[in-house]
Design brief:
Length: 236
């Protein structure tokens, strides 16, 4: 996954998507800010934060922390479990969490989101991105130790229950929903990951479609997607 994060079309597209969605909600002056990339892995989807200001990257896997701090100067690695975050209240101007709440290591996603809200400064933002389509379970979910997929309504609810004001909620990768549904049928009972296949995105085609979808997301929210995203702001 560390290697794939540098070249796989999904990681590249997701990094660009999150940067597009979150940057408008960050402070205008970021060089004095502190960000958190929660369960950030190798930094493949959140390094745009570390490029702007000092960013703490929490992860439980030492190899991921090693890769992130090696490849991105702005990261400070902290070995941490999202269920027991070691950070003080009101520590970060923004918290990013990508595909972690779905994992079996996190039995209570709402508790984790509550923690994100706790460590965020008043006026700061929390961005969550998780696998969407509750009926789109497939082999990749088994390989990545998934416990759940989320609906857009659940993402909205987690943000609000944590005491955050919902800024935006949208689906993403909507064009992957039909093929994912087909793969779910074909791969039933099989453990097969998406990470090692189609790294180029069918010769760049999927990356181009993702770029077109990002252009659409500049104007509106999508009601569904293979991923679901919610952004909340902590009240002042």
């Amino acid at each position: 996954m560390v290697a794939a994060g540098e070249r796989h079309w999904w990681y590249r597209s997701t990094s660009a998507l999150l940067e597009q969605l979150v940057i408008p909600h960050l402070p205008s002056i970021v060089d004095t800010c502190m960000f958190l990339d929660a369960a950030g892995g190798s930094g493949a989807t959140g390094s745009w934060l570390a490029d702007r200001a000092t960013t703490v990257l929490d992860d439980f896997e030492p190899l991921a922390l090693q890769a992130a701090t090696r490849d991105h100067d702005g990261y400070r690695g902290v070995r941490a479990d999202l269920n027991h975050m070691p950070h003080p209240d009101d520590a970060f101007d923004a918290v990013l969490c990508v595909t972690a709440l779905y994992h079996r290591m996190n039995p209570d996603p709402q508790r984790v989101v509550n923690e994100f809200a706790r460590v965020t400064k008043p006026g700061g933002v929390v961005c969550l991105m998780e696998p969407g389509g509750k009926k789109l379970w497939r082999g990749h979910d088994e390989v990545t130790h998934a416990a759940r997929r989320f609906s857009l309504a659940e993402m909205r609810s987690m943000v609000r229950v944590a005491g955050l004001d919902l800024v935006r909620a949208t689906g993403a990768y909507s064009f992957l929903v039909p093929p994912a549904a087909v793969m779910g049928v074909l791969e039933r009972g099989k453990n097969k990951s998406d990470v090692g296949r189609n790294e180029g995105g069918l010769g760049g085609l999927l990356g181009q479609v993702a770029r077109a979808e990002r252009a659409l997301l500049r104007k509106l929210d999508l009601p569904f997607g293979l991923s679901v995203i919610a952004i909340g702001r902590k009240p002042m």
